[in-house]
Amino acid sequence: MSAAPGPWGGGKVPAGASHEGHRSASPHAPHVVEIQHLPKAHRLPPLRPSLPVGVAALAVGLGIVAVLMLLAGALVLMNAFLGATIVPSSLFIATSVDAWGAAILVVLGAAVLALARSLWDLERWSLWVSVGTVFLGLSYLFFTGSITVLFVLLLVVFVYLLLVRHHFY
Fold it and tell me: What angle do CA 50, 54, 60 make, to 5 degrees?
C-alpha cells in the first residue's frame, strides 16, 4: 500500500487504486471505491394539476357563451352609435336590447370570458365563483319549484366541481 492520503484525511489507499473513484486493477488489492463527491440532487419538476375533462368542457362552453354575449352587445352598440344602417337587423343576436342593455352584455361577456379562461387555467377563484353561481341557480330553481332537467344538470355540475376542486391551485 502506498502512503498517499485519501480524500478525507490521511488514510491509506491500496497500491493499484486511484483517487478518481475507480476500482483497483490489481487482483490482489482489496476493492476499495472512494467517492469524492455526492451526486447532484434530483429535483422533480413542479407538479401542475391536470385539466379535468368536465372543467375543460365547462370552460369551452362558457367561452362560447361569452363570445356570443360580446358579439350581441357589440352589434347593438355599433348600430346605436354609428347609425342604423351599419349593421343589418338580420345579424342581431339580441333584437330587443337598447344601448344600456348592450353595454351590460359587453361587460358581462368580458367577465364570463375571463371566468372561462381562469377555469381553463385552473385558478381557484374561478372554481369558487362557478360553484357560487351554480348554487345560486340551483337555489332559484328549487325555491320556484322548477325541478326540471336544468335543475338536475346544474346539480351534476355543482357536485362535479366540488369533487374536482383539488385540481385547482
Answer: 95
